[in-house]
What we know:
The chain is an alpha/beta fold and 239 residues long. The protein is 30% helix and 26% strand. The protein has seven helices and twelve strands. Strand 4, helix 1 and strand 5 form a beta-alpha-beta unit. Helix 6 (195-206) runs antiparallel to helix 7 (222-236). The longest helix has 15 residues, at 47-61. It starts with 10 loop residues before the first strand and ends with a helix. The mean pLDDT is 96.
Amino acid sequence: MNVRWEEHGxxxxxxxxxxxxxxxxxxxxxxxxxxxAVLLYDTGSTLxxxxxxxxxxxxxxxxxxxxxxxxxxHFDHVLGTAAFSGARxxxxxxxxxxxxxxxxxxxxSAVRHGVDVADAAEAVDVLxxxxxxxxxxxxxxxxxxxxLLANVGPGHSGHDLALLVPGEREVxxxxxxxxxxxxxxxxxxxVPARWPAALDxxxxxxxxxxxxxxxHGAAVDAAFVRAQRDELAARFGTA
Length: 239
């Protein structure tokens, strides 16, 4: 389909690859289109937001999202997943057990950050945990293109999953391991001592010439990721 990504509020960053910066927290969702399958990276903060993303993806691709990769277990990245019925959901190993166990803290976090109480409760009630765990690296064939899911954490959380999209310029979706629109946030589930090493793994994954897409903010280059890595190491007193 000859559809302009920008007409639907998306940024096209490579052939068949785009992302949207969602309102509210400037969280990124990514979209990778293959000949046979469509992968979404993160799903938004509510079922309503997830349904909007689903409709936009359908308009862009002409078919439904078939695969979902969740970058980490924070409300603004996972609570829209139930809007994508039938999709195969991937997450870092341990995420499938964590999400159901942490329903109440997810709901409370969403409400604390401004999500409507009813919307937060609805999303948590139908919370979808990954059916497919990634413990190291996993290659997905989307038809005519392969993508790589990489469990590069812990760091920002205990379950950080990155997405590498090969191409003329490789694209790495980083989740909140990298943030451009503000200082990286370290909540109770962050693992500060290992965060710099997680960024080293991201850089090894994409290389110096890749485009890195943060969980919040504008796309950046390897030099930005490397500088943020060094800032985090200084901030947390790690090597």
